[in-house]
């Protein structure tokens, strides 16, 4: 931790919210800066997600399934059921994609359940001043996921409707095919795509950022316990344990809920790309 903020609550939070980046980040989202920690943890957790799913497929048997296989089969069945309802077309790639998104985002969110000081402490041993391990609390990371979903919408829109049909939909929906309405239709469709991209990334970022920040505030209760005296320090430490455990248990639901919402919106948006205007 930097010396100027080592003994203050503001310095502690600012230190933990700083990424291991290629340059100083001037705002919450700064596309001129590469956040190496977001990239590292996103890629590592993606590899872990694919490895877990591959292990489940390799160990699948026709007999009585084990607990891990049973859980994965239930998850696959659930995602397939949602895909059947939301995607009217070829689901051979979309359902596995949605499953991968759910597992990947869930595991990334689970990083927030690890004590907030652990990763920065270990990073300090190796000479790194900053490390922010939660990829979904970085707007650059969540917007990257949402941009990927929007690009897939373009891909499936072109694949299902063809180039002519896709651009015809952009020009003629929702107000009609009159050429005088084409500019308004195109402008509205562009705004719709941008809104989907931004809202998809902002929703996940906002919830995980708030959860991460609350964990830091709870950690400060114990960090400043000594300065409160014997009675105040004891109450502060007890408050940290109770509040930390309570928020941790509640945050498990947020971790799963945000991954579920990301998966469902991915299916909804890709399903809309399959439907004609």
Can you describe this structure?
The chain is an all-alpha fold and 277 residues long. The protein has one domain (3-274). 71% of the residues lie in helices and 0% in strands. Helix 2 crosses helix 4. It is globular, with a radius of gyration of 23 Å. The chain starts with 8 loop residues before the first helix and ends with a helix.
Give a concise summary.
It contains eight helices and no strands. By secondary structure, it is an all-alpha fold.
Q: What's the multimeric state?
A: single chain
Written as H for each helix and E for each strand, in order along the chain, the element string is HHHHHHHH
Q: What share of residues is helical? A: over 70%
Strands, total number: 0
Count, helices: 8
Rg: 23 Å
Mean pLDDT figure: 87
- Low-confidence runs of at least 5 consecutive residues: 1-6
The SS-based structural class is mainly alpha
Shape: globular
């Amino acid at each position: 931790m930097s010396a100027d903020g080592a003994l203050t609550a503001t310095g502690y939070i600012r230190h933990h919210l700083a990424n291991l980046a290629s340059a100083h980040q001037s705002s919450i989202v700064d596309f001129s800066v590469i956040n190496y920690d977001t990239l590292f943890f996103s890629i590592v957790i993606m590899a872990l997600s694919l490895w877990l799913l591959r292990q489940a497929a390799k160990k699948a048997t026709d007999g009585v399934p084990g607990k891990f296989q049973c859980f994965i089969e239930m998850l696959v069945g659930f995602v397939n059921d949602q895909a059947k309802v939301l995607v009217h077309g070829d689901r051979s790639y979309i359902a596995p994609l949605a499953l991968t998104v759910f597992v990947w985002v869930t595991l990334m969110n689970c990083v927030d359940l690890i004590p907030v000081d652990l990763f920065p402490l270990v990073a300090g041993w190796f000479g790194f001043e900053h490390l922010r391990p939660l990829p979904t609390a970085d707007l650059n990371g969540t917007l990257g996921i949402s941009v990927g979903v929007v690009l897939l919408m373009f891909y499936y829109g072109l694949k299902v409707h063809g180039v002519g049909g896709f651009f015809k939909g952009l020009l003629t929906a929702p107000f009609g095919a009159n050429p005088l309405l084409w500019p308004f239709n195109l402008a509205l469709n562009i705004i719709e795509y941008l809104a989907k991209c931004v809202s998809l990334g902002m929703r996940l970022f906002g919830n995980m950022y708030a959860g991460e920040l609350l964990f830091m505030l709870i950690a400060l209760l114990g960090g400043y316990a000594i300065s409160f005296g014997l009675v105040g320090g004891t109450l502060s430490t007890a408050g940290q344990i109770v509040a930390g455990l309570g928020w941790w248990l509640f945050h498990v639901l947020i971790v799963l809920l945000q991954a579920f919402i990301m998966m469902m919106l991915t299916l909804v948006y890709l399903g809309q790309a399959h439907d004609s205007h």
